[in-house]
Design goal:
Elements lengths: L1 H20 L15 E3 L2 E3 L20 E3 L2 E3 L10 E3 L2 E3 L20 E2 L2 E2 L37 E4 L4 E5 L11 E2 L5 E7 L5 E8 L3 E9 L17 E6 L5 E5 L9 E3 L12 E9 L5 E13 L30 E3 L11 E2 L6 E3 L11 E2 L6
Parallel strand pairs: 10-12, 11-13, 20-22, 21-23
Antiparallel strand pairs: 1-2, 3-4, 5-6, 7-8, 9-10, 12-19, 13-18, 14-17, 14-19, 15-16, 15-18
Length: 374
């Protein structure tokens, strides 16, 4: 009887023990926030944690960093003046792929002082390396070539470039005259010693009116730079191909500078096509360290522009079409009958020169023309 009771005591105690264990609760799972991941009971950022880089089990070395889940070995330190861009040491002041900042690529392929050079476009009127001139046109022989470089014998400045020819000594006779390749043109010269003379050769392609001027050595092609300072006193002469003087001037320009102008000088009007010479000298044989000769066309027959002494310009140099080969009106006869508005003679252009007659005396002549729109 005592043994049975003892067995019951043990059973009850065991049940009580097991019953007590069953009432204990498990700890809640670890809650990680901010993009972190639970790794062995610790929240870690797998993007930047060197102990768990990319995965919980991936650990970077002591010299590495974790960037975007990848162990990265930092590049060696860059030299003074260089910056690390994508693992490479570059100079941001002159690197066209990293100009001023990593990844800033220069479209021109050139970086200077941390700024991209402009994209080079020849003939845009702006000088960008390796250009030495840019006059904004595609014409060669005007001082700035088609590749935007200064041509031999010329000087250019400004944007767009203004170019002038420089006289080539000796040029004191018709035989060694400095050639003027085109008009308009300005040429820089000097009269040294004072007994020197400068001769320039020009070739007129058609009947033309000329204007010739001298200025001091500061003229740059602009109207505001037309000056005659420094005490210079020039003499200007226009010669035909044989060397005969057609017209000369001493002080017809600004100050004591010279000017020959077809507007006031008949000898400079309607010059036939061919070779002419311009001669510059110093009055009183005083040296002139620098002067400028400007050559211009007041009119060129056949260029379709009515200018200077022209009475007409129909774009050609053919006579018989009411505008002559020298751009003067040709007289045409009237066509009868033309005595009413219906039968009026149509004029092809105005001005026009027409010869007619009134026979009998009661006759009338009527002409019709069109005023072009402006």
């Amino acid at each position: 009887m005592r043994q049975l009771c003892l067995a019951r005591v043990f059973v009850v105690a065991a049940l009580a023990l097991f019953s007590g264990c069953g009432t204990e609760t498990e700890p809640p799972p670890l809650q990680c926030t901010g993009g972190q991941t639970e790794c062995s009971g610790t929240c870690r950022d797998l993007r930047t944690d060197v102990a768990s880089c990319g995965t919980c089990s991936n650990s970077c070395t002591s010299s590495q960093t974790c960037e975007q889940g990848q162990c990265q070995t930092p590049p060696p330190p860059c030299a003074t003046g260089e910056t690390s861009c994508n693992g490479a040491c570059v100079n941001l002041q002159n690197n066209a792929a990293h100009c001023g900042a990593c990844g800033n690529v220069c479209a021109s392929g050139s970086c200077s002082a941390g700024a991209c050079a402009l994209v080079r476009v020849c003939r845009d009127g702006r000088i960008t390396a390796p250009e030495s001139s840019d006059d904004g046109n595609e014409v060669a022989g005007d001082g700035c070539s088609t590749s935007c470089s200064v041509e031999s014998g010329w000087r250019c400045a400004g944007e767009p470039s203004r170019c002038h020819l420089v006289e080539v000594e000796p040029n004191n006779s018709l035989a060694n005259a400095t050639a003027a390749p085109l008009l308009p043109l300005w040429i820089r010269g000097a009269i040294t010693p004072g007994t020197d003379v400068d001769v320039f050769r020009l070739n007129l392609s058609g009947v033309a009116d000329l204007r010739l001027d001298t200025f001091d050595g500061t003229y740059d092609g602009s109207e505001s730079s037309e000056r005659c300072n420094g005490g210079i006193d020039t003499v200007l002469e226009l010669l035909d191909e044989s060397g005969a003087v057609l017209i000369s001037d001493d002080d017809g320009g600004l100050g004591f500078c010279s000017s020959i102008d077809a507007q006031s000088d008949k000898a400079a009007r309607r010059l036939a096509p061919g070779i002419y010479f311009v001669r510059v000298s110093s009055l009183g044989a005083d040296s002139i360290s620098a002067y400028t000769l400007r050559l211009q066309l007041r009119a060129l027959c056949g260029d379709s522009r009515l200018q200077g002494s022209e009475q007409c310009d129909d774009g050609n140099t053919t006579s018989g079409d009411r505008c002559s080969a020298v751009c003067q009106l040709e007289k045409a006869g009237e066509t009868e009958s033309n005595d009413t508005s219906t039968s009026a003679e149509q004029l092809p252009s105005v001005p026009a020169l027409i010869g007619g007659s009134l026979t009998p005396s009661t006759d009338v002549d009527m002409f019709r023309f069109t005023v072009p729109a402006t």
